[in-house]
């Protein structure tokens, strides 16, 4: 928090005295915040965020960078956002309708887990270390196979339940401790839904996937996979940060819609629709 507060003051070119006057607080308080000796209370954090809005200071990228873990070794470092915090051992118990079904989800970048939980009142952010040795791992390439696995787990294949294709994807991830694949978060959710509903083709969807470049997720499907994680750090996400991240999430979503809209127009006549794929055409 201290780095963030100092950064927003510096971006406006204000002295501590000017900053304090703008916020209606004392220089002593500003000094203590910037030195990490105290934290602004929730009301002060709201004032800090309003200050950023007034002066067009974008602190979201600073927040995203703040949570990135710097390390010099060869460890596989990943990130996880939790709505209320992890209690006890890590377990593969997310909702079953997530991209790859029930599991423990982590990502390669900070922004996805941060924006995922920024709507919650008291979320936690985790840096974790993953040791893949001894695990049976599936690394899924970005493509139609990936999209069909997501389609199954999100329930879009229920209309062909009992068919050979349905059974294929129902058991596609069986036996794997860890599944690695691209993220289908809210930025891509609309495009996936449009594909599954028959509004865009697989070619348009694949180009959207490449253009949005959402990063990868490592999903532990078994307890053995979960046990391979080690928590490195646990952090609270402060109210001011949550406000900025919520705004960042809205902006990212709008940008994604604009990119996807252009891609849909360009490739609307190429490829197959979801129902055609399900029928094997």
Structure explained in plain terms:
By secondary structure, the protein is an alpha+beta fold. It folds into 2 domains: 1-57, 434 Repressor (Amino-terminal Domain) (Orthogonal Bundle), CATH 1.10.260.40; 72-278, no CATH class. The protein is 46% helix and 14% strand. It contains 13 helices and 7 strands. It has helices at 2-11, 16-23, 27-34, 42-54, 60-66, 111-117, 144-153, 164-170, 186-196, 202-212, 223-227, 239-266, 274-278, and strands at residues 76-82, 104-107, 124-130, 137-139, 178-182, 216-220, 229-236. The strands form 2 sheets. The chain has a 4-stranded mixed sheet with strand order 2-6-5-4. A 3-stranded antiparallel sheet has the order 1-3-7. The longest helix has 28 residues, at 239-266. The protein is globular. The mean pLDDT is 89.
Keywords summarizing the entry:
four-stranded mixed beta sheet, 434 Repressor (Amino-terminal Domain), globular, 281 residues
Summarize the structure.
This protein has helices at residues 2-11, 16-23, 27-34, 42-54, 60-66, 111-117, 144-153, 164-170, 186-196, 202-212, 223-227, 239-266, 274-278; strands at residues 76-82, 104-107, 124-130, 137-139, 178-182, 216-220, 229-236.
How does the overall form come out from the CA principal axes? globular
* Strand content bin: 5-15%
**Cα radius of gyration in angstroms:** 22 Å
The total count of strands amounts to: 7
What oligomeric state is this?
Answer: single chain
Mean pLDDT: 89
Based on secondary structure, the structural category is: alpha+beta
Widest β-sheet, arrangement of strands: 2-6-5-4
Count of all domains: 2
Order of helices and strands: HHHHHEEHEEHHEHHEHEHH
The total of helices stands at: 13
The proportion of residues forming helix, as a percent range, comes to 40-55%
């Amino acid at each position: 928090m201290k780095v963030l507060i100092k950064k927003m003051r510096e971006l406006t070119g204000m002295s501590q005295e000017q900053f304090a006057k703008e916020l209606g607080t004392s220089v002593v308080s500003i000094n203590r915040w910037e030195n990490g000796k105290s934290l602004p209370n929730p009301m002060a954090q709201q004032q800090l965020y309003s200050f950023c809005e007034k002066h067009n200071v974008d602190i979201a990228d600073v927040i995203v960078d703040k949570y990135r873990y710097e390390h010099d070794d060869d460890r596989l470092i990943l990130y996880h956002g939790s709505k209320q915090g992890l209690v006890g051992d890590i377990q593969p118990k997310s909702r079953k309708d997530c991209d790859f079904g029930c599991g423990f989800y982590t990502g390669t970048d900070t922004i996805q887990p941060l924006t995922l939980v920024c709507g919650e009142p008291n979320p936690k952010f985790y840096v974790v270390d993953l040791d893949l040795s001894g695990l049976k791992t599936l690394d899924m390439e970005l493509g139609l196979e990936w999209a069909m696995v997501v389609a199954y787990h999100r329930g879009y294949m229920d209309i062909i339940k009992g068919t050979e294709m349905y059974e294929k994807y129902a058991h596609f991830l069986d036996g794997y401790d860890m599944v690695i694949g691209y993220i289908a978060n809210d930025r891509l959710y609309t495009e996936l839904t449009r594909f599954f509903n028959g509004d865009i083709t697989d070619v348009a969807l694949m180009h959207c996937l490449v253009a949005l470049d959402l990063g990868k997720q490592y999903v532990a499907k078994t307890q053995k996979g979960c046990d391979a994680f080690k928590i490195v750090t646990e952090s609270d996400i402060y109210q001011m940060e949550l406000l900025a991240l919520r705004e960042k999430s809205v902006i990212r979503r709008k940008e994604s819609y604009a990119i996807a809209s252009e891609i849909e127009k360009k490739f609307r006549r190429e490829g197959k629709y979801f129902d055609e794929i399900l029928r094997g055409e």
